[in-house]
Amino acid sequence: MKSKVYFSSTQARGYHENKISKIKKLYKAVRNSELFEKKDLVAIKLHFGELGNDTFIKPVFVRQVVDLVKEEGGKPFLTDTNTLYLGSRKNAADHLETALKHGFGFASTNAPIIIADGLMGESFREVEINKKHFEKAYIAGAIEEADSMIVLSHLKGHEMAGFGGAVKNLAMGCTNPHGKKEQHSTRPIADHLKCIGCGACVRVCPEDAIVLIDGKAVIDGAKCIGCGECMTVCPTKAIVLNWSEELLEFTEKMVEYAYAAVKNKPGKVIYFNFLLSITPDCDCVPWSDTSIVPDIGILASTDPVAIDKASLDLINQGGTDKFKSMRKETLGEVQINYGAEIGLGSKEYELIEI
Ligand code: SF4
Ligand code: SF4
What single string gives the DSSP state of each residue in 60-85? Predict the structure, then answer.
């Protein structure tokens, strides 16, 4: 069966077509009666952005969703989880400070922030899924305990996943560092012909798994947790994976975690994808590159697979797969195909422009 995906483009010729009013229209279109009841706790899952990044979803947009939930008597809170890698969101204290620096204070968004997996990732619930790679997954406590969830995703590229949208936001974004580590079973190697010995990978590695020997990076596979941070910072693309075997497993594992994040909330999750500032890299990186295509619009759906498929189709209008042409080894399509295969959602959709 086709899933409905509502879409509003960025074109605007009057106040009634600004992005705020479009978010309201999309919310009213996608909101189903089961989503939440009065006094229910509604997790608004977003990404506050790594310090230095500036293309995360703007607080002014988040505010609109918060106000809409409050108007209907729900109790919204903003949430994300701690990262596996070193950076400005490694624990809840740093994470909250980063969120505030990026404008997500109560005065702006009208909602409190709860880092869903606790101070250091200790808050989680086990969710049984019995899929190919995992029998159970570790979902962040506050996300699993919330009655409902509204997932706000900034659509952009990603070094290993190909792209990041709703599925990736659920997969990596709704688990604690242990769950993130389970998904990152890949182990990169450094190509010494390309390595210039700059040491950027050594500095960023959260596990001290890289040393420079004779001016070349050497990765200790026993220490490496596969987070991929060294790949992101390497200026010469010297750090690579065994792409064909490892990326398929990584991407499928992500999809299984996404399934776990919403398994116990049937009918109680809606998704917004923001196709604005579509950068080559994730908001986890401390920079924001030029957009690869002009701003397109905002989508809303109750289906994470359908909304990601519709987002990709809009970005790739004209025929070229934009994310794949930047990183040919990545397998972004697996997020869609395996998501449909395991029942996370449908890749068949009806696009309804509003
Ligand atoms: S070697 Fe790279 S992938 Fe492994 S833990 Fe360090 S930064 Fe992460
Ligand atoms: S970041 Fe890349 S070029 Fe720099 S030391 Fe590491 S592998 Fe070598």
Answer: HHHHHHHHHHHHTT-EEEEEE---SS
